[in-house]
Predict the 3D structure of the following.
Amino acid sequence: MTDPTATTVWDIAEHLQEDAAVADYLAAVFEDGDLAEIRRALAHVARARGMGELAQKAGLSRSGLYKALGEGGNPSFETVAGLLKAFGVRLTVAPTEA
C-alpha cells in the first residue's frame, strides 16, 4: 500500500523540454526583470537541455557555463545571447506599460 501523504520533489527541468515551454518560462522571468531569477531560470533550462551539449552549442566550456549560471554567477550578455540561441529561442523587446 502506498502512503497517500507521500510527496515528490517538483523539478522544473522536467517541464522544459519543448522550445515553446522554454520561451514561455523565460519570457515570464525576463518580464519580472530580477537578474538573479533570470540567471536561475537560464540554469534551469540549461540543466533540462544538458549542460555539456548546451555549452558546446553556445560556444562555451562546460566549466565556464557552470560558473556563469551558478550561485553568484554573472553571465555576460554574450553568454546569455549564446544560450538563448542554443535553447532555440530569441529575445524580443517591447515597450513597458504605462
